[in-house]
Amino acid sequence: MIRPEYPDPLLSRRDWLSLNGEWEFAADSAGRGVAEKWQQKAALPERIVVPFCVESKASGQGRKTRALHFWYRRTVRIPDEWRGRQIHLRIGAADYQCTGYVNGIKVGEHAGGFTPMAWRVDPFLRDGDNSFCLHVQETRDGSLPRGKQTHLPVEYTVFYQTFSGIWQPVWLETRGPMHLIGAHAVPDVSAKSFVFHLRIHEPVGGEVGIKLIHPDGEADTEVHAEIDGERMAVPVHPRRVARWSPDEPNLYTVRYTIRQNEQVVDEAEGYAGLRSFRVADGKVLLNGQPFYQKLVLYQAYYPEGWVTAVDDETYRRDVELIKACGFNGLRLHQTLADPCLLYWCDRLGLVVWDEMPSAFVFSLVDRAAFEALLREAIDRDLGHPAVMLWLLFNETWGIFDLLWSEKTRDWLREMIALTRRLDPSRPVIDNSGYEHLATDILDVHHYLAGAERIRDFYRRLADPAQLPYRHWRNLYVALPRRVYKSPLLDPSSYQGQPVVISECGGHGFKHYGDRSLSLADGLRQTFDLLAEHEHLQGFAYTQFCDVAQEENGLFTFDRRPKIEPAEVRRLLESAFGHR
Known about the structure:
The structure is a single chain. By secondary structure, the protein is an alpha+beta fold. The protein folds into two domains: 148 residues, Galactose-binding domain-like (Jelly Rolls, Sandwich), CATH 2.60.120.260; 289 residues, TIM Barrel (Alpha-Beta Barrel), CATH 3.20.20.80. It is built from seven helices and 30 strands. The strands form seven sheets. An eight-stranded parallel β-sheet has the order 27-26-25-24-23-30-29-28. Strands 3-2-4-10-7-8 form a six-stranded antiparallel β-sheet, with no helix packed on it.
């Protein structure tokens, strides 16, 4: 069976039906499908394996395409025991706009290539076989958040092949008439408690129950609260406290129950981790203690599925490899990864920088599309204890007029403020790499060559306000081995935030670093130079594995080590000790 695990680990349900597997398929190059009502067709001519994008080998298509319309169809027979219950169609992600039909009738649509959608479908079902049809419209619009997908017919520098169509799992699930739409825990480490934020569909009396199971498997705490609205905040104090960290990734199992007239009408299960991330006095704190970040850049591409792992074990194995190397986290780069990857980071213990996909470098981002993406991404990932911060933009991609436009600066400040309102519990990075405007962590990118040049740069970062913006530093794009960009757009915005080198190394890629060094020597130099400078609070090494033409990984694309994980760990421990 293709990807048999439940796709939403934070709120899983018992009664569900995977729709992963073979679907009928058509690439609509001429864009005729809508006018010709292909959603009413009895069959489509080709086959594709869901949830893998059109370009991937695992999809069975495995082809580059310039088509912008893709049609999927399959028949589904609904289990008899689901009669009388609400049935929802859920899709993890489809790029870029997805419209759903059941028996030829439109049931919903969604725009955005990285976030999930859910539509109620039971009013459109009939006895026997039901036709499910999905129309996915791709885009090459550079103003939309698309991450590192190329906007040209070819891949180049750090931009890769597109991923068209459905690329995360598809499934059906049942819910009661009153049910949980969403649930996430906000931990309070100082109070040794959680506040569970619940969203409830059609609240009409009744009560919600929240039961905590301690990480050791023993029942811990159970609370009940009267349902008094669509949104509820329920405090829960575990009797036995077990904090989450990369070294001890303790997770409480959470069981949710909604009762009405003494009958259970909805049940779901998730988990929560008791931990805090904040910044203070120039340091990043995890559970109130200084936390030195030893991260690796992770782009979430895979040999067979391209942007989707062919099985859950692949996600687990990647997390295990990263931990075996001695890293304590990953910087997810220019994607919103499958929640099952985040689950393994939660379960096995890796912190995650959750980064929004950007618009194309030299486009101006569609602001409405970005805000929708940001809201939906935070809503999806808020409950993952491993997620330590939100990162809005990368290297001024899509907001290059930030350099001179006060309107763009004001809008970026609005997005930062929005993020903090949606989640006051995590730090926010405004614009990763350089040209920061208002950030909780001053993260910096560089691919300089030469130990003395790097050492001089790190020394200067002890007082970033002394590195004002200079136009000539835009030569970084062409000369990254010799030039670094200005960390701050406005030097006065630096108020002692922690400094993290969130891209460095990249050994093996022709544009980065000292090409005369072996990978082992390059790693040793990278780690030793970082460790020399106590004012630096962490780093993200570029990168975990090769991706397409960007061959600068610690592993090849198929996860063969270029240097043994134990040796990477030894080099890290030699440089940083127990930091």
